[in-house]
Structures are given as structure tokens and as C-alpha cells.
Amino acid sequence: MPPNILIYMTDHERGDVLSEGSPCIAPHAARLAEEGISFRQAYTPAAHCCPSRATFMTGLYPSRHGVYNNVLTTTRIHSGLKEGVVTFSERLREVGYHLAYAGKWHVSADENPADRGWEELDVTAVKGNSHDADLSLWREGKAAGDLAPGERQPGEVLRPGWGNYRLYGSYPTAGPKGHEEHRDYAVVRSAIEALPRLADAGQPWVLFVGPSGPHDPYIVPERFVRMYDGIEIPLPPSYHDSLADKPRIYQRVREQVWSQLGPEEVREAIKHYYAYCTMLDMMFGEVLEALAATGQSDDTLVLRISDHGDYGGAHGLFAKGVPAFREAYHVPAIVRWPKGLAQPGRAVEAFVTHADWAPTFLDLAGLAAPERTAGRSVLPILRGETPVDWPDAFHSQFNGVELYYTQRVTMTHQFKYVYNGFDYDELYDLRNDPHEMRNLSEHPGYQGIKRELVKRMWRFADQQRDHLFNRYITVALAPWGPAIALEE
User: 408: number of CA atoms within 13 Å, CB side?
Assistant: First the structure.
């Protein structure tokens, strides 16, 4: 019988948070890494919930699955997956898997998990939800006195006419665990309660557990914040980046929003973000404990992952958005599978994206991935093999959130090129500048490297039917056009 699959996908959790040496307290993720494999170069194709989750479910990039931004708003480009797109869950169900879904969906406004083969537990961000707003929201806020001007409080961002934004905070809880009252625990508890039933059904199963944290704002039980008392929280190495050589929108977000927070507030925000991650790790530990109680741990592939990251103070920014910095794209990816892994405890430097997991799950069930799938099964890597033709670059597809920006990343292990259709481009020498402080895009000594990365961008765009090929004079802004992809 093929293995069971347990997926624990958080929201906004940066890859470095769960890496070795991180100040974040995450003992259960650390134990998973000791017993499994850590993918150090795991990335999402879009630093936004919906396209990244749609890629995870399908193995396709946004240009093929059709989800580019938030499907639960009227500013969405598409409301769901393109016609004919199949998810891994549908195919696994056809071969006898029982699938159960708890937590954040956010893949489609037209369908829910049940429409794609899942039994629904406690699910969130589903069809019928909306993130829209109109003036009535502010009218109600004004009537309630919520928009009254006042002095800025610690951790707060003043936003005239929008309502102030509190980035971090804490609250007391009465339960012995400290997280019983948190919304994410209802999701996790529904998954834990389903595990014995899944294990007793006599068929392989997939359980998706998707808490909504550590999505901003970082409001967490004070118990988890206190765990960081006495721990020095350093400012990110890129915190003092002036962004002077970066696109103007990067500067605007920093200056208009996050520059209101002083260095100590930034440290506090990072502390609360870590505390949020710690809480979610404790919940993850309960899921692992419940799995162990079924006696099926050895037969279960456990994947600990996030949909995308959070700037977390890097370059003076928080949350996610158009800046293409590593912190928003780099995600944790830790796999444990006692009966199927070779050399547990190792770390892998090969590029892995969200597009690789659907082919992996299909491979575990003995199924082939569709030809046009962007990703590949990581099963050979899990078994200790090194595929000679494994991709040596990562590519992104980002068309903005509720504000539209055409942006693409092409990154190798040494260089990173960012095509910004709305501003000047970026180029970073990652070996000498890992924190992306110096933009070399216009440096005369790097034009050959930049050109090679642009060539790679066009070739990937062609493979994925990406819509970057419009040659009209006002939109054909890449420094070299698609014809360079035809060069030998």
C-alpha cells in the first residue's frame, strides 16, 4: 500500500525561521528535520496565498492554472482554476486515497475542497467568503469611534482615512496550553480528531492541515511571547537598506508605512512573529503526537511547509507584496518518511518549488504527472539520488495582489534577476551579497550575466505559456526581447 501523506502548511512562514540557528523556538520542526530531510532552497512561485496554493495543488504555475491573485476579491484576475486543470487530490482519490482537509483553502472562489475530492473538516477561506470592502465599512467604523485621530501606539501604523494598523500584540489566555482559544487551534483540533478514523479505514489517506498563521498581524497569546524573554532579537542584516537603488514602490511602502516603526518596535514585531511561529509549532507537535498514536508514523510522509514567507523586518519591510526579496519567496520544506527516506538528517540545496509537490504525491501513488506540469517529483532526492538534470534555477510569476505589478524572478545559486515591468530591474550577486543590498542591474560589468538570466526568463515563459510576449512599444519593456531565447 502506498504511504499516507500529512501536509502541515502554514501561511507567511519564512524559510529561515525553521532553519538551523534561527532564534525561533520550534522544537517539533527541528525534530522533524533531524528525522527527515530539509530542503534549504525551497520557494513559492508567487509571494501571495492564492497562486502559491493553487500551484501546490496542481503542480502548475499561475500562467497555466489561472490563479494570479486573491480569488476572494472583485479585483481578482480569475476566480478559480482554469477549465481542465486537475489537482493531485482528484487523482489520488481515484486510486483509493481518502482525503481530509482542515484549514485554509484560498484556491478558488468557485469551488471548495469537497469539489476536488476532499472530505471537509474545519475549513477557512472558502467559496462565499469575501475580502471586499466599500465605504460602508468606514462609515460603521466612524460611527463606532474607531477612526478617531489619536497618538500612535507602539507597534501601530497610522493610516489616515484607512484606520490604524496594529502589527503585533498579545493577550492573556486561561488554558494550560496557551493556544486553546486561538482560531488556528480549531483547525488543528479538527485534523487531530480525524486522524484515528483515517487510520482505521484500511486505505491510504492524505490529511491537509492549514492554519492561517503566522499571517500578519502577529497577535498571539502572551505565553508564547514570554518564551522569548531574555533572548536578543537582532535587526535583520538588510534592515538599514535605504532602498535607493530599488524600485520606487519598494521605497514608498517603506517610507509611507513601515518607517513609522522604530528599531525597538521592529525587534518587538519580529519577536511576536517568532512567538506566532512557536505557537504553530506546538500545534504541529500535537498533530505528530496524534499521528504516532495511530501507529502509522512510519508509513506516513509528513511535509512541513508554508505557502510563502514574510519580509519580517528585512529591508525595513513586513508582510509580503511586490518586493521580490528572498524572505517573501523562501519557504520551509521539511519531509519525514521513516520507511522511504535515505540518510535522514541531511539538508538538500537543490531548488524545489511548490510545483514539485503534486508530482511527488502522484509518484508516491505510482501515478505519472501530466506532461505540462512545471514541477518534478522529489522522490529520487528523498531516496538519496541526485538527478543530473534537476533544474538549476528558480523562476517566479507574480502579477501583484490587489494592485497589479508584472514582476518575474529568475534566480540561480549565484545570481538573481528581477524583471519589473513597472520600474527598473534588479540584479543581485547572491554569493557576495546574500541580503540583496546592492542592485547591480545597471552595472556595466554584469550585463552579460543579466542578459543570460533574461534569456532564461524568456525560455521559461515560453515553456509555461506566460503572457510576457506582447511586443507593443509601451509594454515591451524587458531589456532584451524574446528573440534572445532562440540563441544557442
Answer: 24
Shortest CA distance to 371 belongs to which of 363, 359, 386, 360?
Answer: 359
- Full set of structural domains in the chain with CATH: 4-132+171-382 (3.40.720.10), 412-486 (3.30.1120)
What is the distance between the alpha carbons of residues 475 and 421, in angstroms, rounded to a whole number?
Answer: 8
Tell me the C-alpha distance between 143 and 418, whole Å: 45
Cα–Cα dist 314/243, whole Å: 11
pLDDT at 173: 84
Helix (H) and strand (E) counts for the chain?
13, 16
* Alpha carbon distance 312, 237 (integer Å): 12
Residues 6 or more apart whose Cβ sits within 8 Å of residue 85: 58, 60, 64, 65, 66
In this prediction, residue 421 carries a pLDDT of 95
28, 10 Cβ separation under 8 angstroms: no
Low-confidence ranges of the chain (pLDDT < 70): none
Using DSSP's 3-state secondary structure scheme, residue 253 falls into helix
Grid cell at residue 105:
483553502
